[in-house]
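User: Modeling request: complex.
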Amino acid sequence: MREYQILGHADTRSGFGEGLLAVGKQNPDVVALSADLTDSLKMDAFAKAFPDRFIQVGIAEANMMSMAAGLAIGGKIPYTGTFANFSTGRVYDQIRQCIAYSGKQVKICASHAGLTLGEDGATHQILEDIGLMKMLPGMTVINTCDFNQTKAATIAIASHAGPVYLRFGRPKVPIFIAPDMPFVIGKGLMLQEGNDVTIFATGHLVWKALQAGVILAQKGISAEIINIHTIKPLDEECVIRSVQKTGCVVTAEEHQRNGGLGDSIAQCLALHHPTPIEMIAVNDQFGESGKPEELLVKYHLNTPDIVAAAERVVGRKI
Amino acid sequence: MIFHKCDRTEELKVIAAEIRRQVILSLAEAGSGHLGGSLDLADIFAVLWFHTLQHDPHNPHWEERDRLILSIGHVAPVLYASLALSGYFPVEELATLRKLGSRLQGHPGKDHGLPGLEASTGSLGQGLSLSVGLALGAKISHKECKTFCILGDGELQEGSVWEAAMSAAHHQLGNLVAVVDRNGVQIDGTTSHVMKLEPLADKWKAFGWQVVECDGHDHQALMEALCPAREPHQQPKVIIARTVMGKGVASIEGDYRWHGRAPSKEEAEKFLEELQHVSQ
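Assistant: Request completed. Predicted assembly structure:
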């Protein structure tokens, strides 16, 4: 099996910042809006390079979302930047009415998603955002796994027609996706081929899934590991093809079980290829303060949890 | 019947009456909708679409056009009537209002392909933010076009309107004009009873806007008020237009119960007669 090398460590939000600067250079229609979190979202470089195309809206996220829609009507490609909880729940109606309903070219870029926000606690650790966004007709939902993938996704979404929700995070995590790996919206990314179980992982849990794959191999279980960065539209063909081979599934994400990646995969399989499935996700709980790694352990989103789930689900195969 | 642009109040009076007639006819045909506000905005819409706005019904996607955002999407009938009478689509299509498959949705829906419609609106408190985005985008691109936003007075109770107001002044959007339809009524009663707005002009001034108060049924006053604020201040401008809900149909004027009602066929006939009487 393939061993993934750690190329370095960085936060995915910095990948967003670099991607935003790059796409700003490529496309003069790109504008960026920040709700008083420019530094946290690593948007400073864009703001410095393109002061006329950087719009500070202050702590007024509702205004930011509808403003972005107005900018899109006028032909711009707006990227909004704030934390994931302020990018979704706080402004759901603005996104639904002004952005999603008319299929506006707005890119909602959401940092500090999930438990790994860490010490700030549950008020800021949104675990429902993927569900909120994927419910909206026509909304593309992406959750990236490392610096390089986030940078590539940030660039790719500019030329994607329609609204996009791009979710990333705060902590420094391993970089393992090659910097030249193309980002194809809506396509699952095969990280490791295997025969006994498929692990579909997204966001920060992709690295955990790869580590789980190594341990499972030592236990004689051959895991296929696929990164589903685009939760909607789901790459159903990729999901079904893999499951036809392996016959059972583990999903892994830093999100509520309700409304997350596991829920999308379960729906796909229930309709097209009923299969035993185990879900690594937060189950109907709020988070709390703590270090990111401590929280992943406490809420059972860690490598040993994925290993145990894979062993369980292999045992459930008929 | 299609009208062309004009600057004479006599002509605008005829156009406003025809807008009102089409509003009543389309709502009676639909059997539901919002008559009161649609009627009271007819004079403002006559002046906007047939005098003030730079637009081309034969080229709805003309890049340099002025934009109008109807934040109070529930008065869609007055926008649809104005667009049809400008020549964006056949007047006969007004009879499809609110019906299955129509381009004339109950609240404006951009996905349905109606020419001349800029945005989906109707959830109150969002249209001024949309307009700020449009005006700011035009400013960034050094375009001359202007953005007009129609707000309800009850809508000003939504906090996000004031986020937008603050940002328009901050970004010095002299190319933005907001119109407040100050009819003083909302679904549950008068605005002063439900949630008072006064001193309204002072609120806008405090948020950095140039404020003009005028009679929302006086075409001459509206023509003068609706031109954007002048440099060097680059202030956004708001017109607080005093209107009477149901204006033009004497028997329902000022009656808030007509906010969310459509006339029956019989009522429509009576209202059209009243309208005829006023126009003569």
